[in-house]
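To: structure desk
From: M.T.
Subject: fold request, one chain
Message: Could you run this one when you get a chance? Sequence is below, nothing fancy, just the single chain.
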Amino acid sequence: MSGNTTCEDINVNFTHNFLPPVYITVFVVGTLSNIWGLRSVCTSWNNIGNINIFMLNLGVADLLYLSTLPFLVDYYAHDSKWKFGQPFCKVTRFCFNLNLYGSIGFLTCISIYRYLGIVHPMRVMGKITSQHSLAISALVWLFVIVQILPDMFYDKNDLIAPHSCFDTTSNELTKAYLPYSLAWT
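Reply: Done. Structure tokens follow.
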């Protein structure tokens, strides 16, 4: 077996037929749900407590990603022809990763706060303030941005497919991208 293999068996027609309707559905349901959720968080800000800050950040992370979906629908609906330029492709993929890892971070924070409130209510009562939640949220955003920022330096298209918008990087940079991707994961 040679070290030079290709992925010729991938059914791109399935991708082009499946992803646009899924992305449209996710965009509509996700946008409405997140706006409704953010509205709920804002109207009950004083009643729920410090978790609201994490929920607000979670909603913002979701809306960042949802705002990129119309462009991905266009990309996959038109045979993977990216017409918005490589810088915007990088921003689109950055927003996806920002949402993915930011959501993991904020859901983890919510889970820890819930755990502390249920298992150790007397120990943490009055000790966790909104300033703590704001500081932790800023750290989550900072950690996620630092973690995914190097991805912006990898090309998202290549010579074979100059109008592509790869999730990771071009075929030419795959070997250089692998260590970063493994560390990131």
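Reply (cont.): DSSP finds eight helices and no strands in the chain. Let me know if you need anything else for the meeting.
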